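Table S7 (text form). Paired inputs.
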Amino acid sequence: MADNKKAGQRVDSIFEKFGEFVTNTIKRFAAFLFFLFGLGAVFGAFFASNPLVLFIPFAIAILAYYSRDFAIIILVLFFLAFFLIPI
């Protein structure tokens, strides 16, 4: 019985570490993605009429880097928009 408890704790520990790795990776990926959008917005500034549009992707990248929940939500919304909105 004690061996089963130790094995269960070990498995829980492994899943916990894996969960932390995945959520940290998602956070970094979402921040990097919106940072790239920000760089694209800077290049698009030559064609944009409103310069405040430039700061939106950078703000999203900063929020995504510091907030895991925000990063997951914004990444899911981005992928839904990418796959569901026809071009």
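Next pair, protein 2 of 2.
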Amino acid sequence: MDPKTSRDEVEAAPRGRGPLPLLTFAILALLGLAVFSSKKGRPMKPAPDLLRLAFPPGAAVTEHDATQAQVFEPDWWLDVRPLEPDQVDNGLRAYRAMRAPLPPFLEEILHGADGSTIHRLVQRHGDPAEVVRIEYFISFDGDWISAHAGSRDLDRPLDPAPIDAMVRALRLEPQSRPDREVPPAWRAYQRDRRPGSPIAKFVLSMPPAPVLIGDPQALLLDHGLPTDEDFDRGGRKITPEVIEFYTKDDPISIRVDVLLDDPPPGAVGEPVFAAPLRIVDAIAMTCGFDEAEPPQVAIPSGEYDLNIAVVNRGVEDEGMLTDAERFARDDLERYEFRLTPRTSEP
């Protein structure tokens, strides 16, 4: 990675659903607080359904639903989210207020082909200055969306021209179009997986939080804070249905493979944590700030031993892969979750 775009200076986007830089996590948290505050005072116009959003023909859309859309072109990616109107001022204020040591965002007003108003904020860094990130706040006659863009090659600067062209070509239609939906890669993998392969693969973006695994309804509850002893053990069993584990090193995202009824891993991978886990129909995973709907996989109910190991530790691709591309790269770092039915009660 080129020092001009090091993570200490300009946060690179994590590989995973919603490639969100750590800075963007903070901005989204601020926007969430703004929504909570404003809703107490007066009615809010809802955020638009993103299935109303039409991309130009030929756009490489890798995910598209009512709450998020992603485009991965050969040299750059674009992540799109809907906004409520009161979120816009707070988001713009946060980017406009950016100060050293991070480079500032320079704002310009653009106009889309259908009359949309686009606030484009460009972050440049280095000598000579090169574009490293672009943020967009886009109004379609009062319906707002945000989009942020980054380079798929972290050693190369962004060329704003093709990204601006796509953003200007976006249209927000009056009605939602369910036929536009493109499922996330983890859903597509489970739909199409071959016999003998892991039953699920996920990519989780990594804010500064542990990974929770277990009952989908219980994951988002308050589980308290881990102790130093928990970190030393690599994880903790919170309830019979919920386990928390801590990644090695400091990844910005992780790939997780879930394996069922496989033999013990033996010498494959570095052990991270092990504990019994009770499963009722399915397990989900979240990093606490990662998903409104945590990714999950159906598993027969019962008592299991869960063994977590990291394989190819520290081996990462220097570029920005889609989730589907990352699923195919067994030469890169991944976490294996091996579930074995227990022969007796824990």
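The first strand starts at residue 53 and ends at 54.
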